[in-house]
Write a structure and sequence with these properties.
By secondary structure, the chain is mostly helical. The protein folds into two domains: 60 residues, lambda repressor-like DNA-binding domains (434 Repressor (Amino-terminal Domain), Orthogonal Bundle), CATH 1.10.260.40; 34 residues. The protein contains seven helices and no strands. Helix 2 crosses helix 3. It starts with a helix and ends with a helix. The mean pLDDT is 89.
Length: 101
């Protein structure tokens, strides 16, 4: 789990400091997570997954869900000019969902 988190963070271009701030944890705690020396709460795991665009299944078990792979395939087949629109729509849906909780 810790290796997948670190690799995904690096691939996303976040420094450990930036990522820790976004997840709302300390840098030292994030370092311990990435070294596999401590676990994470469900709240922290959820924040990590959302920021990195990963499923919890993948982070925990190393296996992406089939529906995640299908959605990613669709995104990859889209003309890149539509990606900002898709991103905007997803952000609005997530904001609506967060507001309804």
């Amino acid at each position: 789990m810790h290796t997948r988190i670190r690799q995904a963070r690096e691939k996303a271009g976040y420094t450990r400091e930036q990522f820790a701030e976004l997840v709302d944890v300390s840098v030292s705690y994030m370092a311990e997570v990435e070294r596999g020396r401590t676990g994470v709460s469900v709240k922290t795991l959820t924040a990590i997954c959302r920021l990195l665009g990963l499923s919890a299944d993948y982070v925990l078990f190393g296996e992406p869900r089939d529906e995640d792979a299908a959605l990613l395939d669709k995104l990859h087949r889209l003309d890149s000019k539509y990606l900002p629109l898709v991103d905007s729509m997803l952000n609005e849906l997530l904001a609506l969902e967060a507001g309804g909780k």
